[in-house]
Amino acid sequence: MTAPGRRSSTFTRLLRHGFTDPSAAERLLDAVELAAVRDDPVLLEALGATADPDLALHGLVRLLEAQPDPTARRELLDTLIAAKPLRDRLLGVLGASEALADHLARHAGDWRALVTYEPRDLHRGVEDFERGLAEADDPVSLRVAYRRCLLSIAARDVCGTIDVAETAAELADLATATLRAALALAEAAAPEDAALCRLAVIAMGKCGGHELNYVSDVDVIFVGEAVEGADEPRALRAATALASHLMRICSETTVEGSIWPVDANLRPEGRNGPLVRTLSSHLAYYQRWAKTWEFQALLKARPVAGDPGLGAEYVAALQPLVWQAADRENFVPDVQKMRRRVVENIPAAEVDRQLKLGPGGLRDVEFAVQLLQLVHGRADTSLHSGTTLDALEALAAGGYVGRADAAQLDEAYRFLRSMEHRIQLHRLRRTHLVPEDEADLRRLGRSLGLRTDPVAGLLRAWKRHASVVRRLHEKLFYRPLLDAVAQLAPGEARLSAEAARERMVALGYADPAAALRHLEALASGVTRKAAIQRTLLPVLLGWFADSADPDAGLLNFRKVSDALGKTPWYLRLLRDEGAAAENLARVLSAGRLAPDLLMRAPEAVALLGDGNAGGLAPRGRAQLEQETLAAVRRADGAVQAVAAVRGVRRRELFRTAAADIVGSYGTEAQPVEADQGALVDRVGAAVSDLTAATLAGTLRAVVREGWGDTLPTRFAIIGMGRFGGHELGYGSDADVLFVHEPRDGADEREAAGAANKVVSEMRRLLQVPSADPPLLIDADLRPEGKSGPLVRTLKSYEAYYRRWSLVWERHALLRAEFVAGDEDLGRRFIELVDPLRYPAGGLDDDAVREIRRLKARMESERLPRGADPKLHAKLGPGGLSDVEWTVQLVQLRHGHEEAGLRTTRTRAALAAACEAGLISAENATTLDEAWVLATRVRNAVMLVRGRAADTFPTDPRELAAVGRYLGHGPGHAGDMLDEYRRTARRARAVVDELFYA
Question: What are the angstrom distances between the C-alpha of 420 and each of 102, 306, 344, 449?
């Protein structure tokens, strides 16, 4: 007897052999069923070698208890101790699969299926499995026979007799045999249907690719034909009945559970299409209607059951179409669409545990291989394989993938598939999630040979292999292109010129010859610059290809590289700053404006870094004014000073545009900005603050050169329109009013002359042709419009507004805000106009009618000839003008009573109107969404085209780029236009209700 407080020697031995609950294991070993072998060291060693010794021992006791009599129990124990192959296989299965242990407990004699150990048993094929299923005569017995065959595969898998690829192939062969057996049962149940038709079962997906999981849907397509002399519609109904029965035999749950679901949704038209079609119907569909992903799916098509001749005809007819898919007109947008992982559909809590769909998962490898097959398989039949690892090997052999990359990817894929197999094998449930429970992770790690610290070792290995997949997933497409043009590794198989061209076209490059020249210039040579760029380009090219204009992205990168390539900090920034390279790729391929701004001073690329020296966060007005005024102080004369100010403006416009692009496209480090209104507000505020700082610096430079420190008149600039509303876009003019007030003792004529000269000189210097974009100053909203004086004194404004102001001028003053110059004068101007724009008692009926008349006139006269009103973001129905005039009418009517309405900003005024109960929450939301979308459209067009416009571009590539900015993926430009029309239509209905009613 063991002394109290001391552990027995058995307890210690059990711990040493990997048991986690030695006390429970001791009790099981004391069971009467194990009396004859409990002290046999062979048994304990064998249990300790399993993935989960506790589970294996428990399963063994259950199996012994299930034996029908002592003789059968003794036979099992004797064979177990004497025959190492059985011992390893049986205990290996019991320690890895609770589900198969349950099967053995229900079918106590099935352990004998593991006794045989002959050479042919090492790698079983379809015929072997057909023999194993031959005696099944109903769905229940088919399930039992299926599990018995599955038992043999699992046993050889966990013992290492077959590797993961062989296991997957055997599982596919077992599925083939099972489909044949199920079809035979269906035909036996309805011989009259079987006599009318020829039915072929085509395996798709992992079954078709000979790489099935332990638990997976088996994807199939059914092809049917009438036998000679039979009526075709009747024959198709018979074939459909047989196919439906086959699916039920495999899928339905019985007392022995189910086998697996048979999924026919990859058929033409999916679940909406007929279950069975004739070969000619299949062919017609694929020739006319099929999408690229359907040809991608056909890569794995393989006839497995039913009429072999018909199955062979199906493959022969459709395979040529597969290899022509890359020639399809919509191949590039389809490929871009497929390459964007649908990670957002995975619950957030599961993303980091996904083996299949998560970043660095199995799907990344499979998709990359399939895409390269589609691109290059047209001219190279060696790539025509449905099996991922075989296809990867062929791609490497042909030089389409680097050999080292292919070897690393092969290793990672095998490890991830092994994890997936062992996870599913435990309970025979379909899952691709890595477990979280410590015991599950321990069993999983041990099953993969990790014994010292199985949990930590498993997680390290998994993350390492997933990281390899993530890194190589993109590199796989582009590294061979670099090798082909750089030619640095003699003797290595590489892409031919034609294969390189095909790949560039498939990845969205419209001018592959030019793109390959750029690659050659960037990647060739033995300099440090070329070496770093060869490392960066595989990833950069992937980001370029993910844009609407990959050619522009690559060309712009070459220009930046030519300008900065010898600058140490530039190469270091791209190499070491995590976000810089992706930010640069997004900015260079999103349109013309940001690259144009960058090319004028490429050193601004430093802003794209994520360190302290960079950053895309907009700078405030005070900081910008401080910089521009300091630049003016350092400059020698107004021309040099304003040139410096314009340089600051160009750099800050680039910062704002880059931040907008990154926020709209999203990056690995920064997801897409969910609040589009916040994006619009940031751009509007940043550009407005920058314009104000530019005017302040220019004003200081002009005054300093002409009058020294003091102008003979106080001078203020009042922002109007979108400038005063903090809503400027990239291409907006600066709408302003100029106001001055002669200083005490100054001559009024001299003061007026000085003020006019300041305005004239400011406008000239801000439009002087240079590398920096001009800033146009528009003063047309002044009293009397273009006919009135450019600059007025404060008293003149007061007299004019008191006697002559029109409704449109009061309307325009809703946006008036001081932006530069004499702050006190600006404040007094605002105090002057407040009673005009927020009149006590609101507007009378005549004024309201006048505003409505002006709005209607503007809609009819200012809309450009030939423009589609429904797509005009400014003047069209539901556009900016509609929303702004509606909100401004509310401000004119109620601004005197409601303090919240006294703002120059459209969205803030709309929110205040809602809060005051003047506009319903639903209507306010509708107007806000329309205003934000229309503003983003204008910003997008400017970013893409490099010049301002209020309508969507007609060029397909430019339209696609606008769509990408607005969150619509490749091939969805039509959806973008539909969304805009819907949003604008809803907004116009609200405008009709609130403005015109």
Answer: 21, 31, 22, 15
